[in-house]
Amino acid sequence: MSTDPTLTPEDVELLRRPLHGFLSVAAGPVPAQPRPVWFELTDDGTVQLFTGPDTLKVRRLRRDPRASLVVAAPVGEREHWVAVAGHVTVETDGAHDLASRLAARYWDLADATRARDLEEILAEDQVRLVLHPDAVSRYAY
After folding, report:
1. Which residues, given as ranges, of the chain have pLDDT below 70?
2. Does residue 68 contact residue 129 with C-beta atoms inside 8 Å?
3. Is 68 in contact with 82 (CB distance < 8 Å)?
C-alpha cells in the first residue's frame, strides 16, 4: 500500500470504470458512515458526485469539507482499491449534466424504467460535489 496525492495510470483506469464508490464525510464525534455512490473522475483529477442540496452529507460537508471515496475492483478480480481523500466543494452548477452522464454510465437508458428514473432525478434540485484530492492511497495485489 502506498500514499501519494497523485493518481497513477492504474488508479485512473480503476476510477474510470462504472463501479460504485463508498463516500465517507467527516462527521465529528459520530463515526463515518460510508454510502455507495456514483462518481466521475475528471481530467483534472478531481472526483465529482451529485446529490440533493439538503442531504445529510451536504449539511456535514458545509460544516467540515473533509471526505474520502474508496473504490475497489469487484470480486473475481485481483485485489485492487483506490482511496481518494481531500476537501469537497459544493457547487450549484452542472449537477444535472453530471447526473445524466452518470446515469448513462451505470444504467441502460434504453430501459424505459431507468429512463423514467433519470427523469425523476433531473426533476429534483441537485448539487455537484467536487472532491479535491489531498491524498491518494492504493493497494494492488
Report:
1. 1-4
2. no
3. no
